[in-house]
Description:
Strand content: 15-25%
Strand order of the largest sheet: 1-8-2-3-7-4-6-5-9-10-11
Bound molecules: threonylcarbamoyladenylate, magnesium ion
Amino acid sequence: MDTAKVDPEKPDKDIMARAGEVLRRGGLIAFPTETVYGLGADALNPDAVARVYKVKGRPSDNPLILHGNSLAELEKAAIFPRDPDSAVYKLAESFWPGPFTMVLPGQGFQEDKKTVAVRIPSHPVSRALIAASGCIIAAPSANKSGRPSPTQAWHVAEDFEEGGIDMLIDGGPTHAGLESTVVDLHTGTPRLLRPGTITAEMLQNTLGEIPLITNPDMAQGGRTEDAPLSPGMKYRHYAPKTPLILLVGHPETVRAVAKSYGDKAGFLPAHGEDPNKIARDLFHNLRWFDRMGVSVIVAEGVKEEGIGLAIMNRLKKAAVEVIYL
Ligand code: TXA
Ligand code: MG
């Protein structure tokens, strides 16, 4: 794979120009954003977008997020409301550029879809790539479908050893470590679809009187409270190769139960840790435990508030079993 290392704050102009050219010609570029690494293609080139689905092994009914540097650019893809007081502009003003995505009515260039997810990234490398290519960039996370999202360049290389990507821009570790917060606004009523580092509390603060609808299932990562011990694999995502057990309960009990899994188990502690750091390192730690060849990954749950909602959403999706102690 053609890999180019850049300064994440001030990426080399020649490298970014080369990457922009690859994108314009329909190629695929893996690049850092402030959330996770993205696998970018020219959003207006259907062949390039089809290749993204193919190399990721992504189900065709799971749409991609489009990345632009400004509202004016994103207007080519999404329909923004006429009302300047709309929640859309309140949220855009508060959280763009940044780790935040809005689902809006689409302009119709993706024939089969009524809505489109758009975001303005803040990472200097993402911004430079959009600028150098002149494209709106469709970019899912740069992992094989179902694997943990990549937060470092080697995570991308690990998933795409056999190729499929034209260029990997290595800009070091990403900042947030979890994918962007996704809010659906296409009906006018804001609905949280995916929690992230822009928290529900931050969103509600900006929305003021307008209520943010949250899906009660979301914190469960798609599982129900009724069957907490069910080992159902159905909703597994973000998953390491090693089975992950999520323990939720008092820190001392969690530690004691974690010990019972033996010396070969890898433990991911949460109690007393900075939640932002837990988020930033989570996907890296899952891949790292895979590399170390631990027998099982035992993760400690966190409170489902603030950024904890996003951490638990990812952990529950990655887990083969959630145990409430
Ligand atoms: O942080 C991020 O969002 C990263 C970086 C690369 O920007 N991208 C990312 O993309 O996480 P991906 O494809 O892994 O996740 C996109 C999420 C999926 O849950 C998808 O279902 C949802 O956004 N999505 C995309 N378009 C949508 C739409 N029109 N309606 C509802 N959900 C949509
Ligand atoms: Mg993804």
